[in-house]
Design brief:
- Its main location: membrane.
- It is a multi-pass membrane protein.
- It comes from Pseudomonas syringae pv. helianthi.
- It is built from 14 helices and no strands.
- The protein is mainly α.
- The radius of gyration is 20 Å and the shape is globular.
């Protein structure tokens, strides 16, 4: 990719479009949780209820690295517009679902679209912002997740209680359309690929199978199955074997989907581990707490957001402050 110089006004316009995309993808992790009891009551299906959230998370996780590679090959703008379009269309399918199976399938499509929005947004910032300033913009992005953590449960609770659970998905239609228009108008002049695309098809298939099997196995355990269950063993065994083949293949192919040398970078590994472990408590607050307050303590649809508002408000401002400080020499290690 060939980097192009962007003026400050152009960077601000692009940043606004990217933050809208990140906010939408994060919002759908939080806005749905408070509507789960209402969804279950209408469809009278408990078995697939957990998959309303899990399907989105699994498909998003698998899609992120694939979009990253495709963005290098075909250009970030095309992939961002595709992800936004798919996410918005899938939101319509979610709102129109007539069964739990249809809703889960629509959530898979939604996660695939959101994976592009998350992955390509980060890559575009690296294209247009010099390394010294990236910490500040990464802080802005991180603040969108905190905003979604506050706004998602509140909006989801209000719409479920006074309108319908379907509106937690239909609200994405005007927001997604607006983000799509802004992205189409602002994401111009981005770096474009200068070489013929070479896609690692086998690596892509192996990674999809391996990660999907691993996440499905973990989800099954979270739903009450144990390691002695044949289904769980089959999923985890498939994941282990497939991912081992994936790593072996990626080390030898000329155009790997996921370059293995990245795992030798100590800074990258530290960042990944930090995100991995902090996500445990974040997901518990965002997803599990609404169910607890509604089913155990008997709180209303909007009870949970009030209990976590102070913590989430702090999460809103800390990323921005850290982002401003991170571009100063010698500060990053102290922040960790």
């Amino acid at each position: 990719m060939t980097s192009l110089t962007q003026t400050p006004p152009a960077i601000r316009s692009i940043l606004f479009a990217l933050m809208m995309a990140v906010l939408l993808s994060a919002l759908d992790k939080t806005i749905v949780a408070v509507s789960m009891p209402a969804i279950s009551a209408q469809f009278r299906d408990i078995d697939l209820l957990a998959w309303v959230i899990s399907a989105y998370m699994v498909s998003l996780t698998v899609a992120v690295p694939i979009y990253g590679k495709l963005g290098d090959l075909y250009g970030r703008r095309k992939l961002m517009l595709f992800g936004l379009g798919l996410f918005t269309l899938a939101s319509l399918f979610c709102g129109m679902a007539q069964s739990m199976e249809q809703l889960v399938l629509a959530r898979i499509l939604q996660g695939i679209g959101a994976g592009g929005m998350v992955s390509v947004s980060q890559a575009i910032i690296a294209d247009i912002v010099p390394p010294r300033e990236r910490g500040r913009y990464q802080g802005y992005f991180s603040s969108m997740y905190a905003v979604a953590s506050v706004a998602g449960p509140v909006l989801g609770g209000l719409m479920t209680e006074y309108l319908s659970w379907r509106w937690v998905f239909l609200i994405n239609l005007p927001l997604g359309a607006a983000a799509l228009i802004v992205a189409y108008r602002t994401l111009v002049g981005l770096p474009v690929p200068q070489r013929k695309p070479v896609i690692d098809y086998l690596g892509t298939v192996l990674m999809i199978i391996g990660l999907t099997a691993l996440l499905l196995g973990i989800t099954e355990i979270g739903q009450g199955h144990n390691l002695a269950d044949v289904e769980v063993q089959l999923l985890l065994g498939t994941a282990l074997l497939t991912l081992a083949i994936f790593v072996w293949y990626e080390r030898r192919t000329a155009e790997p989907l996921l370059p293995m040398h990245l795992f030798a970078n100590k800074s990258a590994m530290l960042c990944w581990c930090t995100v991995f472990f902090t996500s445990f408590q974040a997901i518990s607050l965002i997803v599990l707490m609404p169910l607890r307050y509604q089913t155990v303590t008997g709180g209303g649809q909007t009870a949970r957001p009030c209990t976590c508002f102070r913590w989430l408000s702090a999460c809103r401002w800390v990323p921005i402050l850290q982002g401003d400080a991170r571009h100063k020499p010698g500060v990053t290690s102290h922040l960790f």
